[in-house]
Amino acid sequence: MDALQVGSALQPALHLPFLPRHLYRAASSNERRLNFWRSKELCLNYIQDALLRKQWKRAAEFLTSYIESLEKDFSTEYMGPSEIIWRVGTEILCNHSPSNVREFNSFIEQMKTLGVKRYLKVCLEHAFHLLCNGRIDEAYQNLSLAESWRFGERTVTQDKEMKLIQAYRGLLDYYSWSNKKNILLEYEKDGFEDMSVEQEMHGFFRKAAVNLKEIIKIPGVWDLFVKSYVDLLEFYGDHQEAREVLTDYAYNSKFPANPNAHVYLYQFLKRHGAPKKSLISALKILHDIVPSHELMIDFNTMLQKSKKRKRRRLGLEVIFAVLDYAGWKKNVKAWSCLARQVKQIVISEKHLDWIKQEWNSRKDWWPAFHFSRYLAKSNWQENERLSYEKALVAGVLLGKDCKYFKYVSHHGCKAQVKKFRTLKKFVNKHSSAYLSISGL
Amino acid sequence: MDEEDAGGFAERCAQCSEVNWGLTDGGRFYCRTCHNVIERTREVVSTDVIPNARIQTISKGSRSQKKADEGWEWYVCEGFQLVLKQQAEALEALGVCPQMKDETLCNFWRRYLQKSQQAYCNRPAGETIKTLSVCDSSTDMDSEPEQSSLLHFLSVSESDGDLQTDCSYASSAGKASESTSVCSGSVDGSLYVRKNRKEKLRMSMPMTLSFCYMALLWLKEPMTLSELLRFVVEGHIPYFNAYQHFPEKMKLYGLDLRIFCVESWPVYEEVYNKMIELAAFLDLPRFPDITNNCFLHPDVLCMKYLMEANLPDELHNWTCRVVKKTSMGEADFLTLTPGNKSARKVKYDVLAAAVIVVVLKLLFLLDDHYEWLLSDFSSERKKNNKEGEGGPYFEFKKWYKVIKCTLDVEQKKLDEEKAKYLWKCEKPLFYSVKKKSKILRRRQMVENLQNQFGKLSGSVRPAERPNPSSFQLSWSEENTDGSCFHGHSLKGILQEKHGLLTAINTDYWLCTDELCNEKLCGHLAHYREEDFPKSYHFVLSLFSFLLRIQPSSIHEEVCVIEHKLFNKKLYKKPRYNRSLRK
């Protein structure tokens, strides 16, 4: 060897003096010996990896080793091995052999015994799983069993879980009631009468009503429960209660903002012939929360017809707001509503400032959004009616020289569709309206 | 304790002059009339527990049954004795000579018992069992601060599970200063767990492996420590759940778990260091010499590792040269002399691996450039030398490709094995009788679930572990794909100079220019992957896999060898500076 080179040498780690001896050594993370929990941690990594890749058999293979950790899991940790095994096992069984419900049930039964704190939660999720597989009766049995479970003092979480269990049982009771009701109606049609069915039906009603009423008291989103409960109340004629329930569900500030609540209330009011005022007030809030809601069309129709100026004004606002959203771009109904109202305003020559106000915030982007030449072409090709309505609006808002109007009216007249000629005349006649709107 | 046990002892009592003797638990004679205890002890030979007639139990009274179902009274060291016996038998089944079990190990053990005053000695007065301790940490307790309350030892440690539920149970048992079996199946379990600052070595499960290795070394058996540990982990040698083969009547519970239940893989360094301590503790003389034809000699061991690493046989000449040059083949250097504290202790497997690494560095430089150029050069040479004499030339590139693939596959398998490792056995342990039913139910559930998911995954767990083999990787020359490099020639990388074959490579880089002070940092050199060339790391990781130890251990040995090899060049100092060297 002629040359001797020194490679990069690692100097011993610097350390503070007076440290305890065992801290002098540079600790290397690799050198941690393999112990029980470390190997289970590694196992869990492999399980996770296999789950993400949907390799169920491989996940099951590693889970088999992981299950050992149950023998050392007597802790009260929230996410301990018991919980992990329950969740992972469920995932694997559901995906690997979704039809084998018996396997799944036996697995879940074992999971239920794993921890007092977890029992209700496991029962609840088991019930969900059964419901998803259409096993309604089994789910009902499980829920009833869980409901009757008692073990010492209940924690807050367990209280909530119990309430959920009762609520779902109530829901299933409603479902049974609904079935009985349908049978009864069938019988009535055929002229039968069956007391026993009727009794059963009433029985289910009582059970369902109690639980459903309880759950909707708690702030939350209970759409399905509310609907069911209202259905029950309506059938038995308790409209007062139903209305109260729906009003509370929609207006109680403790509950999270829920557009559906207002929809249900509106539908109920409509069903029971409530005055226009209450209908409008119900829909007004919906307009504030979800301007693009499908009920806005009905809302606009209602408002347009109104004699009150304010309401008509609101109607215009509503329909413009609806068309701000991409989902409505090709909706003929919406455009026809807007077109109708715009036309009416233009003809009456009153309240052009309304249109001006609405157009003000939109004139920068609506032309490109709705009235581009490309859209003119595609609208014309796809849907003549749509292009007609849009052309009317475009003609008023952007004038007869705008791309959209020119294209559509030109093609419309060329195709000799009568209404386009009328349209052209109309817009030409009222071109002053455009000038007024555009502020010239 | 019947009168028969006092058996024929008819001397008169010094105090009351009666002849009415009985035996205490400690095996001493006492006068039943006046309760005077005398020095005489009684040794009992019990052959039904330990079939080997040569081993005697420690001196104590006859086995008394406390209650019908509670089994025998037994001491912790008896448990260890059983474990050692099982391990010796397993080693015998692996091919070790029977002498190991019947003579060597057994004698070592007896000597240990004597030195630690657990048996074969007179009990001190007071009939208490002396508490034994270790100086360092042991088993699964990693450097816990020292406390003397029982409560502490039942608290959660890193490697054990949750024992908090039993804390209340333990505290109610109170401090046991005399031998009680309240919180453990064994008589002295609670005392055993307590730590004391005394010089004597306390027995632990990893230490059983130290015993085994010491016996193997004494007999110069062809099994290195890394092999032994690998067999343990593969399940060929009882270690993890060795207690499950204890006799029915030896009940284990409570604190016995801390002693006999192992939940971490044995660490090479730990077992090795304990062995050294043990050898010194037992006042053993110089071990039998490691000579040239002994398996543990670097010349022989290098050959084995070269084969396993799929390297050419011709490299063996080079390893022998390095060994010779650094005088590491000397019997004095290699043989273990427990009394000699200053001599550096030799880890034979690590040494052999390190020698090979040094040889590879000598021939290929391993600086991430040269070895690849040399490989191309070698293949060029082969093409030019078309006569094909001596077979193919060794090319680093080809070797690297083959080994990298294999190593990746094997490492992946090993990692998965670690993750899938099953620690528990059918015989569950429990801390107290109260918990027994709960534990058994859990065990039942675990087995059910394992069945269920085992069927799902379609993997039938093999009942027997794969056959034990000394070689983890094997290469056959019959393979036509050319993946075996044993017969390859080194001609491609050697040149003739002055009639001798020397390496083409004339450079060398040292892993470190100065060795650390072992007393301060615990090692002579430290290893960080990012500081070294990737080829070097690759070679280290290959041997790290084969020996199942950290690359840093091999790296340390490589540094030491290099310093020996280049001693003259390193420590060449001008004379007037000599006094400044430490």
Automatic annotation (TrEMBL), chain A:
Give GO terms for biological process: transcription by RNA polymerase I
Give the superkingdom in one word: Eukaryota
Pfam families noted in UniProt: TAF1_subA (PF14929)
Cellular-component GO terms for this entry = RNA polymerase I transcription regulator complex
* Protein name as catalogued: HHIP like 2
From TrEMBL, chain B:
Domain Rrn7/TAF1B C-terminal cyclin: residue ranges: 264-456
Taking every annotated instance into account, which residue ranges of this chain make up the domain RRN7-type?
Answer: 10-39
The subcellular location is: Nucleus, Nucleolus
Q: What does the UniProt keyword field contain?
A: DNA-binding, Metal-binding, Nucleus, Transcription, Transcription regulation, Zinc, Zinc-finger
Record GO terms (molecular function): RNA polymerase I core promoter sequence-specific DNA binding; zinc ion binding
Q: Where is the signal peptide?
A: none
Establish whether keyword Nucleus is in the entry.
yes
Q: Listed GO cellular component terms?
A: RNA polymerase I core factor complex; RNA polymerase transcription factor SL1 complex
Source organism's superkingdom?
Answer: Eukaryota
Q: Name one Pfam family in it.
A: Rrn7_cyclin_N
Give all residue intervals belonging to the Rrn7/TAF1B N-terminal cyclin domain.
Answer: 80-247
**What Gene Ontology terms for biological process does this UniProt record contain?**
nucleolar large rRNA transcription by RNA polymerase I
Mainly resides where? nucleus
InterPro entries cross-referenced by the UniProt entry: Rrn7_cyclin_C, Rrn7_cyclin_N, TAF1B/Rrn7, TF_Rrn7_Zf
What PANTHER family does this protein's entry cite? TATA BOX-BINDING PROTEIN-ASSOCIATED FACTOR RNA POLYMERASE I SUBUNIT B
Q: Which family does it belong to?
A: Belongs to the RRN7/TAF1B family.
What is this protein identified as?
TATA box-binding protein-associated factor RNA polymerase I subunit B
